[in-house]
Amino acid sequence: MGATFDGRGVNFALFSAHAEAVDLCLFDDGGTHETARHRLSARTDGVWHGYLPDALPGLVYGYRVHGPYAPREGHRFNPNKLLLDPYARAVVGEYRDDPRNHGFDKDAPDRPDPNDNAAFALKAKVIAERFDWSGDAHPQTPWAETVIYEAHVKGFTRRHPDVPPEARGRFAGMAHPAAIAHLKKLGVTALELLPVQYFLDEPRLMGMGLANYWGYNPVAWFAPAQRYASGKAGTTPLSEFKGMVRALHAAGIEVILDVVFNHTAELDAAGPTLSLRGIDNASYYSLAGNREYENFSGCGNALNVAHPRVLQLVMDCLRYWAGECRVDGFRFDLAATLGRVSGSFDPSAALWAAIRQDPLLARCKFIAEPWDIGYGGYQIGRFPAGWGEWNDQFRDVTRRFWLGEGINRAAFVRCFAASSNFFHAPLRRPSASINFITAHDGFTLADLVSYDHKHNLANKEHNRDGHNQNHSWNCGVEGESGDPHIRLLRMRVRKAMLATLLLAQGTPMLLAGDELGHGQQGNNNAYCQDNEINWLDWQSIDVDLTGFVAQLLAIRKRIPALAANRWWNGQADGAGMTDVEWLNPSGMHLEVHDWEDPAAKALMIRLSGDWLILVNGSAHQVHFHLPPGVWGVLLETAEDATAGLSGNERTSAARSVAVLARTATGAG
Fold first, then answer.
1. To the nearest 10°, the Cα dihedral for 601, 607, 612, 615?
2. Are 192 and 148 in contact (CB under 8 A)?
3. Mean pLDDT throughout 537-560?
4. If you average pLDDT over residues 569-579, what whole number do you get?
5. Would the pTM of this model clear 0.85, i.e. be above it?
6. What's the CA gap between 261 and 283, in Å, rounded?
7. CA angle (489, 494, 500) in 5-degree steps
8. Where in 6-127 does DSSP place strands (E)?
9. I need a labelling partner for 102 at 20 to 30 A (CA). Which of 58, 117, 468, 611 fits?
10. Strand segments (E) across 161-285
11. Cα(119)–Cα(495) distance, integer angstroms
């Protein structure tokens, strides 16, 4: 599929089951003027194809697809629209919000628009690039040792003073030694990048002078986004992306791509006709009985991944990024949509089976965002063995435990133990729970303790967008505060939540910037803010907080119960070692009545015998009687690491976590 150079010419192949004819249109290098047009006369199993002898890489092309314009039957063909190859490896041109990009006549929506858009339509370019991968090796970090760092290519280095200006905010910036040094210092093992496949800004945002910063609006899944390329002589977006992957691999860091196969940039029926809609709308999209678009994504359409050729498109794409570009894994946005069969989620859907049997993809990590907005869309815990899933239960329970009310020890412990109520199933491991407190969508950690309410006016939607239930707490003042007591409290609670995240069973995921103290002015839906709201400020980083995160991750690696990737059972093994013990502040095992007490928010968690985590989620000091042995404080989220420790007695500050290690065995 797509355009393939074989050394002597280029083969073109495009799937359209309902087309009546397909024209291949060739253009000059800039994509402005059409230079030739060829009818693809061959058709095999719905694939239109043809071979151009002597054609070379660099050739710019697009398609015109002929067929019925009958929206009530699901067909929206319009040969007046030049269409982008869904297999395009490189894209030429820039999208403009022009009415001529729409397939329908604005005065009569049941008729095709007669205006031609070829002069400015997005076009594909044939490529055949070579890249030197010599010496590259996949880190292949085991799930049990994986720590994920979610970051945005542009936002991570756009303001980094040690990255050259021409590389800032680009793939080259992410590959720069200064950027990689920070990741290594923290101790993260995997970089999860927000979408880097070619995406567009929605017309609505363009009209308001905003942009789709996050990138969840794809149009060409095989092409790296041009906006993240430096344009340096001798490089291309693809070569620069590969160079980034190679540099991260050399540092032992895996690369995971956030991929969007649930919808496309063609949006709803009023959206533009750019590619799939004009190629074969009825095959590529999920349509309801009235032939209107299903909208499980909330973005106007949903890909019909249950169709064999659409499934092939997704699989070919995954294999391309895993094979040609050597990425290490994928996080699927709104993954529940991809498992829908006849509208309902099916945990044994064809896509999951296809991925599981693929030998190239077998080494990759797969992560699901286990929900969409459609009926029955919340599917946490129902994805296949070997997959990780974003665990919003961990997020909400952790926030409510530290910042609010209504969470008892039982709920806290369930999440701390990798949400076994969701994930402890045959063939699944604790690592399936991708634990997070913050992500790109929502408050940052700094904002979580600084705002009771969202402040999204910059998005120009009258503060109607974004989540209303954030389980946040401003610690007494809405927004920034110079009060030292409030600042101290905010830092203490942030550290307590970070300790909960990074010492819990499961796979932790950090949001880039949380360790730096980055805030977004209370914006909990900054998807359209391509500016300093999102760009990390490296000149004002919190050095102490960064070191604290690194210290937590170093401790995590030392605790056997967190490295084993086995479900805790609280029973002694053959060597007499107990993986976990849940103790009350008096040092006794928690009894049935202790778990459900809504007023009790303090406990001790003993891991692998020699590690003790003191958790005080209450608003007052708590006295702990430690188990027998000599215990030393490794880490304290409150201000004084040695305060309140005397022998086996310990007083912990309100809303704090302490981590202790046993240094010798006591007489008891």
1. -20
2. yes
3. 95
4. 84
5. yes
6. 15
7. 130
8. 9-15, 21-27, 34-39, 42-44, 47-53, 60-66, 69-70, 75-76, 91-92, 104-105, 108-112, 123-125
9. 58
10. 190-193, 197-199, 218-224, 254-259
11. 55
pLDDT band at 593 (very low <50, low <70, confident <90, very high): confident
**Residue 319: both structure tokens together:** 């294999």
pLDDT beyond 90 at 405: no
Q: What are phi and psi of 603, to 5 degrees?
A: -160, 165
Q: Which amino acid is at 225?
A: A
Structure tokens at 119: 């002069």
Find the length of the chain.
668
Residues 6+ apart with CB under 8 A from 20: 66, 67, 68, 77
| Alpha-carbon gap, residue 445 to 262, rounded angstroms | 28
Instruction: Kindly give, in sequence order, each residue whose CB lies less than 8 Å from that of residue 237, ignoring residues fewer than 6 positions away.
Output: 90, 171, 223, 224, 225, 226, 228, 229
592 vs 505, 596, 597, 605, 646, CA distance in Å? 22, 8, 10, 16, 30
Tokens of 351: 């896509």
Rounded Cα distance, 659 and 614, in Å: 6
Whole-angstrom distance, CA of residue 413 vs CA of residue 404: 16
pLDDT digits (tens, 9 = 90+) for 212-268: 999 999 999 999 999 999 999 999 999 999 999 999 999 999 999 999 999 999 999
Q: Hey, is 373 helix, strand or coil?
A: coil
DSSP 333: T
3-state secondary structure of 87: coil
8 Å CB contact between 449 and 438: no
SS3 assignment for 100-133: HHCCEECCEEEEECCCCCCCCCCEEECCCCCCCC
What pLDDT, in 10s, does the model give residues 636-664?
998 765 556 677 889 999 999 999 999 86
d(CA 79, CA 227): 29
CB 337 within 8 A of CB 22: no
Residue 378 region by backbone torsions, left for phi larger than 0, else alpha for psi between -120 and 50, else beta: beta
Residue with tokens 């803010």: 529
Q: How many CA atoms lie within 13 A of 22 on its CB side?
A: 27
Strands 365-368 and 344-345: unpaired
Element (H, E) at 601: none
Each residue of 50-80: pLDDT tens digit? 999 999 999 999 999 999 999 999 999 999 9
Convert 486-553 into a string of H (helix), E (strand) and C (coil): HHHHHHHHHHHHHHHHHHCECEEEEECCCCCCCCCCCCCCCCCCCCCCCCCCHHHCCHHHHHHHHHHH
Q: Give me the pLDDT at residue 160, please.
A: 97
Q: Which residue has the tokens 């402005």?
A: 32
- Domain annotation for the chain: domains and CATH numbers: 2-125 (2.60.40.10), 143-562 (3.20.20.80), 569-664 (2.60.40.1180)
Which residue, chain included where needed, has tokens 């970089």?
191
Tell me the catalytic residues: 333, 369
pLDDT digits (tens, 9 = 90+) for 175-207: 999 999 999 999 999 999 999 999 999 999 999
Span of 104-118, 359-373, 613-627, 654-668 with lowest mean pLDDT? 654-668
Q: What is the DSSP letter of 11?
A: E
**Cα 261 → chain centroid:** 13
DSSP 287: B
Angle made by CA atoms 74, 80, 81, in degrees to the nearest 5: 70
Residue type, position 321, single letter: W
